């Protein structure tokens, strides 16, 4: 009789924080992409936990090597969602007992340095903390030929600030409320967004078909349009609240990109508090049209506003 009192109800393993930078050279024009990757595997791996049976373990070191190898050999390495899908499908198609592969990529931005107004061919700068993010999963549990997948794409740590066009009034008031209404405030957040991509329904999910998947979705264009729409609505909306601006942003994103099924935003409300300068006989414009000029940026606490906005009817899209 076993004296075990617990059973293995979930198990997933792999390599995290694999950093890789890939350079592609076309004459004097070089392309660079830098990833931090996490790749986790699921499947018939139970005995590695319960019976110390390592024969079912694709070593995490092998997982790491594979990320380097695919960074060299994959035609999709410069297209993060397609590359993530390639990694995921590699593991589910190479190892019959590996049924699911979860890939998380963070992309660190390298932009070309402008020299005398011209983009340099092989010199780059890191501009800001912004990172692209991709989450992909391939699932061959129902059989290799019935492999399914999902791909989520987004960005995080994109800091934005506007100095007009933001108010916050008419909120609920009770005995716990001290916040004053403001019809003019600073609005700053760190954009965190992720959207679920609609993959083509009739294309079998194989490594050979990743090009077709990309043609259907257009990962790069969808990403650029979503990033631009997010920035434009942030800049131009007469914001009644973070919530209302977020919702408007998502409506535009879903309108512009039929391949997006839903989009999730998380906006920390990075508060900027006007400083009271009246003790120093200085007018900080408190309550005046046009607003204050000196603020105290508050690191914490911050508001934290999230929402997922889902397409009502996928039939209304091109899909
Ligand atoms: O846009 C905002 N939404 C809130 O929910 C909130 N709460 C708060 O104190 N300030 C703000 N601002």
TrEMBL record:
Entry-linked InterPro entries: Uricase
Main location: other
Species: Naganishia liquefaciens
EC number(s) stated in the UniProt entry for this protein: 1.7.3.3
Residues that, per the record, bind urate: 60-61, 168, 185, 242-243, 269
Protein name as it appears in the record: Uricase
Catalytic residues identified in the record: 15, 60, 271
Keywords: Oxidoreductase, Peroxisome, Purine metabolism
Pfam families, sorted: Uricase
GO CC aspect terms: peroxisome
Enzyme class: oxidoreductase
Pathway: Purine metabolism; urate degradation; (S)-allantoin from urate: step 1/3
GO molecular function: urate oxidase activity
Reaction(s) catalysed (UniProt annotation): urate + O2 + H2O = 5-hydroxyisourate + H2O2
Primary role: Catalyzes the oxidation of uric acid to 5-hydroxyisourate, which is further processed to form (S)-allantoin.
Record family assignment: Belongs to the uricase family.
Listed GO biological process terms: purine nucleobase catabolic process; urate catabolic process
Residues reported to bind O2: 60, 269
Localization per record: Peroxisome
PANTHER family per the UniProt record, alphabetical: URICASE (PTHR42874:SF1)
Amino acids binding 5-hydroxyisourate: 60-61, 168, 185, 242-243, 269
